[in-house]
Amino acid sequence: MLSALLVMTGIAIVLGAALGYAAIRFKVEGDPLVGKIDAILPQTQCGQCGYPGCKPYAEAIARGEAGINQCPPGGEEGIRKLADLLGREFKPLSEEHGIEKPRSVAVIDEQTCIGCTLCIQACPVDAIVGAAKQMHTVVDKLCTGCELCVAPCPVDCISMVPVAETVQTWKWKYPVIEIRKAA
């Protein structure tokens, strides 16, 4: 009886290890609908929707716990895409979550910056670089324009500057595809 129990325990350990390895080796993807919703969201990670980032908001939408009109950075275009994807009725942006604004990036007045690092801690995408008691700067290609760095700054040295619409910045969340003429 004891030997049968030991054999079963050994089998359980081997199966558990195999399943654990498989879960790590072959990453199991979540709900494909969440991925499609998340792909439509602007990836600003700003939290204006009431969720800590775009993926948690996408998960809440997929579960039916959140409206499709809670993302100011995604704006009307994002709401329309979500409505089309989910077969829901278009609703205007929820006023309680903010207003749609043009794309912008944070700019730090480096002469005024005291190097407190509060903006670095607030940035959800690590777009601000600097060290304690040293000036900070924003890597504009990484900045999503979420504005989360503005409020914690004790010297008000951060401003949001609208990004001029050019071929490179239009539809800023999508890569620009270069088309070349055949020689």
Automatic annotation (TrEMBL):
Residues 104-133, 135-163 form the 4Fe-4S ferredoxin-type domain. Binds 3 [4Fe-4S] clusters. Its EC number is 7.-.-.-. Its cofactor is [4Fe-4S] cluster. [4Fe-4S] cluster 1 binds at residues 46, 49, 54, 71. Keywords: 4Fe-4S, Cell inner membrane, Cell membrane, Electron transport, Iron, Iron-sulfur, Membrane, Metal-binding, Repeat, Translocase, Transport. It comes from the Bacteria. [4Fe-4S] cluster 2 binds at residues 113, 116, 119, 153. SUPFAM superfamilies: 4Fe-4S ferredoxins. PROSITE patterns: 4FE4S, 4FE4S_FER_1, 4FE4S_FER_2. It is found in: Cell inner membrane. Residues 1-23 are annotated as: Hydrophobic. Part of a membrane-bound complex that couples electron transfer with translocation of ions across the membrane. The complex is composed of six subunits: RnfA, RnfB, RnfC, RnfD, RnfE and RnfG. This is Ion-translocating oxidoreductase complex subunit B. The gene is rsxB.
